[in-house]
Amino acid sequence: MPWELKYEEKYATNQEARNRESAIKKMKSRNYIEQLISSAD
């Protein structure tokens, strides 16, 4: 089964994008991630 993109954010630099990814992963909250995904719809 291929991956399906559910959420996307755009950043000016690769470092900004990595920092944001790290912040999201540090939340370790399924609720937080599900809210991000649903807000994108």
Structure, explained:
This protein has helices at residues 14-27, 30-40. It has one domain. The two termini are 22 Å apart. It is mainly alpha-helical. The chain has two helices and no strands.
Global mean pLDDT: 89
Number of helices: 2
* Radius of gyration (Å): 11 Å
Number of extended strands: 0
Summarize the main sheet. none
| Share of β-strand residues | under 5%
What is the element string, with H for helices and E for strands? HH
Shape: globular
Estimated structural class: mainly alpha
| Low-confidence region ranges | none
Helix content: 55-70%
Q: What is the straight-line distance between the termini?
A: 22 Å
Number of domains: 1
Task: Record the SSE blueprint.
Layout: H1 14-27, H2 30-40
Give short descriptive properties of this protein:
single chain; 41 residues
